[in-house]
Each structure stands twice: as structure tokens, then as C-alpha cells.
Amino acid sequence: MMLRLAIMDEKSQDLSGLRIDRDRPPPSVGRALRWSVVIVVGAAALVIGFFYVLRGVGGPSVEVARAQLVGGGAGASTGVTANGYVVARTQASVSSKITGRLEYLGVEEGSVVEEGEIMARLESADYAATLAQREAELGTARAGLLEAEAERDQLRRDVARSRDLLARGLTPEQETEQLEAQLTTAEARVNRVRAQVDAAAAAVGVARANLENTYIRAPFSGTVLRKDAEVGEIVAPAVTGGGLTRGAVVTMADLETLEVEVDVNEAYIARIRNGQPASIDLDAYPDTSFRGHVRQVVPTADRQRATVEVKVSILDVDPRILPEMGATVEFLEQTEEVQPATPARVFVPAAAVRDESGLQIVWVVVDGRVQRRDVEAGPVTGERREIRSGVSAGEQVVVAGHEGLEDGSRVRIAPR
């Protein structure tokens, strides 16, 4: 009996090892659960990190401008500056003299042309045919004139012989009179045919002028700035209303006549006079100043804007200077004595200087972050303000978007 119980206990122990433990998940499920947790945690970490990176890189959007170096030349500043644009004194939109379809265009933007050079041509087959017809008519008229002159000359000789015979009593007077009448008629015919020759020659001139008008030539030596028409389009001297007709073929200018046109507040125009030296700064080249002088103060004012237009010639010819570039002109004092060179000064837009707690500050963008700078600012001249210390030429200063800026924070530069 004891032996049977021992055997049953051994069997029950062996069978207990084969029982499934339903309270513990299988190994594959546990591994899947652990991997799921790892993936979720990793994704959350990436999202959080990406959010912080974006917040750090982006930051608030600001508008910036570069600090400009002005001066360093002879002459003292009058304290008057004005903004304007570079223009060409000699500029034209070149069109055709007659209406026609553009057949040939031999220039591109930037092409340099000489005065009288053919830049384009209209379809001209009909004008060439008309010229050939008129030349043929002129040839016919000239041949008729030769025939009429020959007949007249022969009658002159006949009249001379008849008069000689009449004087000697060898011919009747009536015959001589008939020959003289025929001579008068012949001379009238010669005059009529000669007038026909002149008319035919004039018609040839008109036909040749019409053919010449199909050629579009450069009115002066210069550079092509823009093509206003393409081959196949209809061009005309003047365009009214809508449609596909072009009024100009190209726009060209003489780049050696570039100057700056600025509007000066009428309150300061008394400080400006013809021939006055000036310093010109281009927005495209903030670190370079160009010499100039006042060519003309336009003798009228704009009542809406209370300004007077001033034209300033550019003395330093530079191929980098192009029409329609933005420019700032500083007018200098003109004295008979030789003045020492004035020190260079740094200017920023007036909107860049902020007053905080009695201090003047400027926010400077360096490597995508803003720095708060305490500066010593001079008076406002036009739309600019001199910075005597705290900012160097060429640095980017914030002109809009100051709200919420913190020293060292990242910012995004808004496109201008």
C-alpha cells in the first residue's frame, strides 16, 4: 500500500510539470510587449526633441538691415540725406515707325549696340516689292523723257533750217510756223515727262523709306535693358486699348549717363544747390560709397509729398551700378578751402534704435541669435540715424519685430 502511494506521488509530480501556467504570458508575448514600450518611448522622445529643436531654430520673425559706413571723403556733411533710385538720363523705349509683324530680333538683355545699328526687322516682302515697282516706273519715265528730249532736239534743228530757208526765200512761211508750233509742243511734252520722272523718283523715295522703316535701329549707343516684344508679334508705333500689339520692341539706355534721382524735403532744399558734392550709397553695396555732385535741382515741388526732386550725377563710373537700384544720397558742404577727410560714420535705419529706460539700444543678429547692444546714437537724418558706438558697419540690425526679443534667443530673418 505504501509502495502504491509512493508511485502515485511520483506520477503526480511528473504530470505537474506538464501543466500550463495560465497566469504567466508566453515568452514571445513578453518580448513583443517590451519592444512596443521601447518604440513608443523612443518616438515620444524624438517628437519632443524635434519640437524643441524647431522652437530653438525658428524663433520669432524679424526684419533686419545692415549698418552702413558713410563718409571717409573730403567735405563736411550738411546733415541732409535723401533716398531715391538710379536712373539713366538717356533712356528710350524703342518702337517701330510702322505697324508690322516682327521678323527678326538680334539683341538680348545686356547687348551693347552702336547708334544706327539694326536691332530688329519687320516683315518687309511687300515693301520690297513696292520699291521694285516704283523703281521700274521711274525707269520707264526716264526712258520717256529721253524720247521726248530727242524729238524736241530734232524739231529744234528742223526749225533752224526752215528759218534759214525762209530767210533766203526758199520755203514758205507757213511751213516754218508749223515746225515752230511742233517745237513748242515737244518742249511742253519734255517738261511734262520730266515732271513724271520727278514724281516717279519721289515715289521711289517713299517706297525706300517704307522699306527702311521695317528696320528698327538703335537711336543712340547704349545697352539693351529689356526686350518688350518677341519674333512673330505685331508691333506698332502707338498702342491704344487692349490686344496683342506691342508698342515697343526693346528698352535701352546709355549706362554712362547714370544718375540718382532723390526727393528732398522742401524744408531742407535751401541747403542744396547745383554742383554741390554728394556721397552716394547703394543698397546693393552697403560697404561702398560713390562720389557724386548735384546736377540739377528741379524747379518745382510736389505739393502732396512736400518734396523737391534733385538729380545727382555719379562721378565714380562702376559697371556694378545698374538702373533702378535703390540709393541714399548724403549732401556735403562745398567750400573753396581744401578740407581734411571727414571720418567715416556708421548709420542704421532710425527704426532700429530703441529707447528703453532712458537707454538707447539696438538688437543685432549674429549667427541666427539676437544680441542686445547699448549704443550711443546721434540725431536722426531722414530715415537714418548715426551710431557713434556699439555697432560696426556691415552688422545686421533688427528694424521690425522687436517685441518679445531676449538677449541670446534665436530669430528668423523675414525675407524683404
Describe this structure in words.
With about 425 residues, this protein is an alpha+beta fold. It has four domains: about 60-65 and about 345-415, conserved putative lor/sdh protein from methanococcus maripaludis s2 fold (Beta Barrel), CATH 2.40.420.20; about 75-90 and about 255-330, Efflux pump adaptor protein, beta barrel domain (Elongation Factor Tu (Ef-tu), domain 3), CATH 2.40.30; about 95-125 and about 215-255, Beta Barrel (OB fold (Dihydrolipoamide Acetyltransferase, E2P)); about 125-210, Helix hairpin bin (Helix Hairpins, Orthogonal Bundle), CATH 1.10.287.470. The protein has four helices and 24 strands. The chain has helices spanning about 1-15, 25-55, 125-165, 175-210; strands at about 60-65, 70, 75-90, 90-95, 100-105, 110-115, 120, 215, 220-225, 235, 250-255, 260-265, 275-280, 285-300, 305-315, 325-330, 345-350, 355, 360-365, 370-375, 375-380, 385-390, 395-400, 410-415. Helix 3 (about 125-165) runs antiparallel to helix 4. The longest helix is centred in the middle third of the chain and has 43 residues, at about 125-165. The termini are far apart.
